Amino acid sequence: MKVFRFISILIVVCACSNVLAQVQSGYVKSLGRPNQKGHALSGVSVRIKGAHNVVVSKKDGKFSLVIQGESYILQQVQKQGYDLNEHSIIGRKYAYSSQVPLVIVMVSSKQLNAEKEKIENNAYAVAKKNYNARLKILEEEVKKNLLTIEQYRQEIKLLQDKYEKYQSMINGLADHYAHTDYDELDEKEKEINLCIENGELEQAELLLSKISFVQLVTNIDKRMSISEQIKKNATNDLAAFMKQQEKDAEYLYQLFTISLAKFDNEKAKFYIETRAELDTLNTLWQIQAGSFFMDYDADYSKALVFYQRALNLSIKKYGKNSDRTADAYNNLGVLYDNIGEYEMAVDYHKKAMKIWERLLGQEHPDIATSYNNLASVYDNQGKYSLALEFYEKALNNKIKEYGETHPLVAGTYSNVGAVYNHLRNYEKALSFFKKAQAIMDSNKGFDLLKKANLYNNMGTVCQGLGEYEKALDYYKKAIHIEEQALGSNHPDAATTYNNMGLIYSLLEKYDEALTCHQKALKIRINLYSEKSPVVAISCLNISKALNKLENYSDAIKYCNSALNIRKESYDTLSSNIRECYVELASIFNHQGLACYSHKDFPNAINCIMKSLEIWEDSIGTDSMMVSSLCDNIALVYSMQNDYENALTYWLKSVNYKARVLGGNHPKLGDLYYNIGIAYSKQGDYEHAIEYHHKALVIRESSNGTDHSSVGISYYNLGFQYYKTGENFKALEYFEKALPILVNQLGNENPKTIELIGNIEKLKNNMEIEKNK
Amino acid sequence: MRLVVFLMCIIFLGVELNAQIVRGYVKTQGRPNKPGKALAGVTINWRGNINAVVSSSEGKFSVSFPDKKNGDAVYLVNVRKVNYELIDPELIGRPLIFSTEVPIEIVMVSSAELEANRKRIRKNAYRKAEANYQKKVRILEKQKKESEITLEQYQLQLQQLQDNYDKYVSLIDGMADRYARTDYDHLNLIDREINICIENGDLDRADSLIHTVFDPLTVLEKSRKTKAEIESRMQLAQEIIDKANEDKDAIRKDSTYAKRVISLCDNLADEYINQGEKKKAIDCYRQSLSIRRILYGENHDEIKITIQKIQSLQ
């Protein structure tokens, strides 16, 4: 303990001796006056606080003070016959400086008194002069009756008061100015001070204002106030300008809506764009211009400019994570979805979603919009499982907020159904559409068109499921609403009628199909021109129904109108034109077959020939249809026993079929057989044998060796050999045919009986020849 | 007891002095044939104020904000009256300028009236759109007949027209709502007429009226010119200020000289006071005040003292 105390004392001692002694230089001078500069004063004793010794100034007035630490305090400055010019320096604390010397100014008492007296005298003289001058003015004014006597007296009294007061102050004033050290002043300042001391105040002020420094300061103030004024005026003008701009913007919006109603999109575009450009910092105007360019004009690059601007503004004005910024991201997401840049769309929707999730939480109903939009992009992208995931999220939020039966929930159910429809999972699609339907049915005020749209979707799904009757029911519901809500003259109604017609065709109710297509056609002709592409569709569908109803002449008429419409807008090689030709050919074929069934063979041939011509001229010959038509023509000729022509067309048919299917296709079997028959009828047995052999080979390989057709082929071959006189071969084939026919057709079949008869006949003939 | 009352008075006085009061009024929407009138009994909530205020029989209300000053933003949280709604729903949450001078205006409309107006405007818009559609179709047909356009062009344009019609119809609701919310009290004569024409579907007249007061072709150019002109003035002012600030900095750097001029000015002022020349003394003090402001800024004791000196002379 003792040791410790000792150490601490030691440290204190050390600390004391650690403070370095420093030398502060200085000098003493006498007060500088206008007519007498200050000079060095020697023999002045100076002492600082805490010092034992007095320091005395040398001949050049200089002295050195030894000080401890960074500062010192003057305690005493003395010289016989002299006073300090400024008494307050005693006791003042000075900072040590190795650079700047301490300057002490002293003044001899004698000189000070003389200066004071001089200044006092001047002041009195000026005061007297001013007093007299003022008095003289007052007297003049009384003389001129500018003042009443009463006023005059008051003024005189005031003047005297002032004069007396001033006199009482002259002493202090003189003392103040007598202490001014002229050595410190520049020439101008000296002059000013002199003027003040002499009572020439106006002159002093004039001199003061001439100092460039004062001019500078005055100048700065003036410049500041001028610039403030400019700013203020500009700000006022800006406010007025903004007000005018808002009015201009309103006019532009009005012109915009007027142009829209007149379907003058070019003008509308100009107006909405001008408004957006009027103030590129107005977020709303940018957004509205953007959505016009996107929805109306499909000018996505321009829409992008405005949406991008809106995004930047929102970030700047409302912050990176604000609601408005999320809105802007969402708009960009929808835009990119529209132009098919799905990756970007997903990116922006996710950004919007994150902000909303942070601001509103995952369960808020508003965020469902974001989920919905994102899901829609995934749906378009074909990423159906992701689409379902986000639709389900949207669904959950909406159900939680609005309950199971809210119209908004129905919309999302419908979206989910559409995804399942894309996945061709019709059952699930239907179940979601049904949920949507249930909600719509329980809400009276539901948007009718959305309802009709849903019914149409449900119809499509049922069609996919093959449930045509149900599909029909839904279309009927849709058409009912559309006719009520939109009138019977709306394109949506025409589409629904069209769908209904197609279903009726699938159900083979062609009368109803015809009625539906006719209604669709009527609406479309009313709405569009008679030459519109959708009119062509209806015409073609009507033609198809008429074809089925065997009203061929009308069918041809409608099909031709469809063809003519399409010829004007499509290339001759396009599938749309081809479709018409195929239908037209089909009608002629059916017409021909109808004639055939009425035994009107010449017309039958005529019609089917036309059909064949259409195929060969306008569609192409690499279809099975062509050979079928040839078959049909040959058939009709053969019915007329015109085997020469029949043979021509069968050969043509074989040509096509062999080319398309290959020479050994099972379908060729019967054809070869027919050709064999035709050659035979014309007496060309060699060819007949050749084709019957071909037919036999194919029939054996495709039908099996014991098929009745094989038996018939053997029988025919035998017959050909019989005709060429090759009786042994003939008998061989007859006997091959017999067991097959007996097995397959039975003993009682006329063909079998005929064969047995022929065999016996042949054997008899052969017996006779043998005997000869 | 008397002391307590007195103290309370002081406290209340203190609060009243500090509180900044905004005044305002609620009125109904002005329509062409029916100017808006004061609306009483509207409950208004403000952000940062727990208590709602209710509009008086003259539609007036006042609300105090203890710590707001002119130019600050204040926000409405809720404005309610049964069967009424705001004509501008965006008013909620939008920053309103706090001002003790300019009253805040809130405009409401009865929901039934708004719906009726919306319906009427919507109906007129549909009617007009349909008529315009038919007109366009007829023109196209005529052009086709006279072979001014090819069939292909005709079909294309017809399809576009149909598209436009559908899109326009989808916009009608929003537009009808916007026009139904127009407050006619704020419109001048011609603007009233324009709005009436639009609401009634008399679009050609609205179009020509607008063109008499407004030129859409030059507006952008004019606006850009004005904006550039104002901006250049602002810039000029800023340049002057910047240069002055540079000079101020230079003065601050050489403060010893500045201080000497200050004392010269003060001396001269004192001298003038002694001679009873108050005006001249004030001028001198102002001079020294200017220099002091440059040296010390606004919140310095010397500034306050000099200002007091000037005030005592006035």
Describe it for me?
The complex is a heterodimer of chains A (772) and B (314). With 772 residues, chain A is mainly alpha-helical. Chain A is built from 30 helices and eight strands. Helix content of chain A is 74%, strand content 6%. Chain A is rod-shaped, with a radius of gyration of 60 Å. Chain B is an alpha+beta fold and 314 residues long. In chain B, β2 and β3 form a beta hairpin. Classes of the chains: A mainly alpha (772), B alpha+beta (314). Chains A and B meet through α3, α4, α5, α6 and α7 of A and α2, α3, α4, α5 and α6 of B.
Features:
heterodimer, A: 772 residues, mainly alpha, 4-stranded mixed β-sheet, 4-stranded antiparallel β-sheet, 30 helices, 74% helix, disordered N terminus, B: 314 residues, alpha+beta, 3-stranded antiparallel β-sheet, 9 helices, 9 strands, 13% strand, elongated
Largest beta-sheet details of chain B: 4 strands, mixed
Largest interface: A-B, 66 and 72 residues
Distance between the termini of chain A: 169 Å
Runs of chain B in which pLDDT lies below 50 for 5 or more consecutive residues are 1-18
Radius of gyration of chain A: 60 Å
Largest pleated sheet of chain A: 4 strands, mixed
